[in-house]
Amino acid sequence: MSYLVNKVQEQLRSAVMSAAELAAQNGELAAVPSAPFKTEVPSDRANGDFSANAAMVWARELHAAPRKIAEIIRDNISLDSTYFTRMEVAGPGFMNFYLGDRYYADILKDVRQKGADYGRSDYGKGQRINVEFVSANPTGPMHMGNARGGALGDCLAAVLDFAGYDVSREFYINDAGNQIDKFALSLDVRYRQLYLGEDAVELPEDSYHGEDIKQRAKEFADVYGDSYINSEESERRKALVDFALPKNIAAMQENLTKYRIKYDTWFHESVLHNDGELADTIQLMKDKGLTYEKDGALWYKNIEVQTERLLAQGKTQDEIDKLELKDDVLIRANGNPTYFAADIAYHRNKLSVRGFDRAIDIWGADHHGHVARMQGALDAIGVGGDKLDVILMQLVRLTRDGEVVRMSKRTGKAITLVDLLDEIPIDAVRFLFNMREPGSQMEFDLDLAVEQSSKNPVYYCQYAHARICSILKKMKADGIEPCECTVEELEMLREEPERELIRHLAALTDEIVAAAKNYDPAKITRYVVELATLFHKFYNSCRVGCDDEKLMKARLYLCVCVKDTIKNILEMLHITVPDSM
Fold this sequence. Notes:
Number of strands: 15
Radius of gyration: 30 Å
Strand content: 5-15%
Largest sheet: 5 strands, parallel
Strand order of the largest sheet: 7-6-5-11-12
Oligomer: single chain
Structural class: alpha/beta
Helix content: 40-55%
């Protein structure tokens, strides 16, 4: 939490404990209570700015009614040298505390002092976190799941950074294994069809049928002609993959850069195969007795590992049996490792070799069953499954005029990330994809995304910033500019819309920490929408250019604090911050 909010809560706890100690000395309480109590912000501000449940918690320990304990605390408490002006007892023993003017003034001072760092904290203590997201197969164009995952992953990484973690963004390139074999086969067929005809070479049903495969095969033919037609199949397919794969990867990098995502690491799966890490991981699993051979393949004892973990978690054998657990193949009969085997090696690389304290993966909801298998395997090899957190992301439905949209206007094909970014402002895409929790299904309204009105959340927030810039520009034209204010001047901001706005500013650090803890950057988009709403409410209720010069200075100061906070948040989410609209 922010320094001041933390200080306020410490003052409250200290004042309550000092009152309890004094009451015990006076014989009004049976003893000095020891049970810890909570302080919180009431949902209804009529019940104070902060409340404490001490009287409820101490009732059993002190053998007294909560109401009586609360009244004794009230009669013995001293709020001198705190931000609080009074305490009230309500109901059966609620203890409500009310903040004075100085608190609101100091919050604004804190916002201005911290500037671009306002909202940052050291909550994460510099723990190293790897956030892996999108990680689309480089065998075709990126789809809507990648679009949502990209916005979610990048904004989550930004939130974690603000919360004091050392964050690394990572893209895992699946450039090995079955999908690359299928990619090679598909390219090979399309290449040969160019010269031999489509009837001469049939494209298997389970291969890639997209137009992008045809395009890459043609590009290859434009460079090499028919020189590979009579080559060995393995040589031809290797040449095709060596030609097409880098182009696909470069296209992904270009599109994600356009999406304002900058990865710290592009990790190639092939590295695990080529440098021996995958083989080392398989050998480690063998050494730990986690594998067995059957039908020429090497299997992982998933049933045994999962059953042991679930029993330790308190599950019954009947509950486990209903899960219908299965063992997993690690090495196929043909000698090729499975994706699961590579995935275990990859996460071992993140957590053991590169030494990240935690790995966060963003996967589609269809990977739900894979989470427990991965965490169990990491536990079994001694890496620690609890170091892997997986965010399961639901699908996106695109709508226009209330109807579901599946095809691109431009291509007539399924809408890809590129199609979306060509049609919709990037600000809107990034913001709207972070308006809902990852686990919730989402409708993305294409009409709303391009609408320039208060109905569009990102436009609404940008407009609030631009509106403040307009106010400052107009005031400057009249010879009035924002300046430093005294505490006494800022204490003049006593109107409820002013106080609401300041209280919301004070909550930013806590909101960022909560978003980081819950892996939910939607908390921050909702926060900034509410900040814009409260600013518009303040603007309509409290005239900035009022006749009272000191009050005018204070309100200008408040405007600048709001403007800077909106800017901090939008820039954190990599969304543009216009000065005029």
